[in-house]
Amino acid sequence: MRAEINVLFFTQTQLFKHLQAARATGEYDKKFQQLVTVPLLVIDDFGLKPFRTPQDEELHDLIAERYEKASTMITSNLDFPEWGDAFPNKLLGAATIDRLAHGAYKIVLEGNSYRTFTETKNDKK
Predict the structure, then answer these.
(1) d(C-alpha 21, C-alpha 31), whole Å
(2) Which pLDDT tens digit goes with each residue over 81-121?
(3) Looking at the DSSP assignment, which residues form a beta bridge with residue 73?
(4) At what angle do helices 12-24 and 28-37 cross, to 10 degrees?
(5) What are phi and psi of 3, to 5 degrees?
(6) What angle do CA 35, 9, 61 make, to 5 degrees?
(7) What CA–CA distance (Å, rounded) separates 79 from 77?
(8) Over the stretch 35-64, which tens digit does the pLDDT of each residue have?
(9) pTM as predicted
(10) CB neighbours (10 Å) of residue 66?
(11) Which residue intervals of the chain are DSSP H helices?
């Protein structure tokens, strides 16, 4: 963002609500292409809620279209080996995760939650 690169940020839930609303208004293709072409797409809380059909298919299509063309950042509280558990279709999940993982950087943040730290710090005042 500091380099003035266009970025879209969604939680997983917001992303699917965005796509569902676009489908309902007949603007799905337009919104989908916007997601495909933005230089950086950030999806927060990946796997927090299990995917339902057609969410798993939409995510796969989105990741497949972005694959090796644009950057995608995923945040998750799940360990990487658990990501497949979020997909009802395990084959589709494996294909999606394979595209996400290819050439990816994995950053693991360890330690206490910032939210817990903030709450504890504020509680001491």
Answers:
(1) 10
(2) 999 999 999 999 999 999 999 999 999 888 887 666 555 55
(3) 42
(4) 140
(5) -85, 10
(6) 35
(7) 7
(8) 999 999 999 999 999 999 899 999 999 999
(9) 0.85
(10) 18
(11) 12-24, 28-37, 55-66, 90-101, 114-123
